[in-house]
Specification:
mainly alpha; elongated; Cd81 Antigen, Extracellular Domain, Chain: A; Tetraspanin/Peripherin; cell membrane; CD81 antigen
Amino acid sequence: FFTCLVILFACEVAAGIWGFVNKDQIAKDVKQFYDQAFQQALMADSETKDGKAVVKAFHETLDCCGPDNAIGAIPPLWRDDLCPKDSILKSFLESSNCHKKIDELFSGKLYLIGIAAIVVAVIMIFEMILSMVLCCGIRNSSVY
């Protein structure tokens, strides 16, 4: 069990370092994923319910509406069912498109992600210590 925890801890540290080094590429990939989901949501087919759900999740979480291109700048009728009501007015007043919000998430809120990673790392270290104590306690037990 201790070995599994050490391997998981090493993988989490490696993924955190890789994510920090490649944060610009990750932000670019997230924007590309959003654009694909947005294009699916614009199609009025019954097959695009997944695209609409993804776009709504982006809009509600990031408090934004529309991409950073010419399609997002046009105020068509589909925004009523994709964007929150207050976000439509806000997008016209202060241009809160989702590409800017994704960039802000990966640049401005990076310290929150770092704090969460440190908390998870401390918990994992305590788990490793307690599993080693349990292993030594079982080894020194007179029952076996």
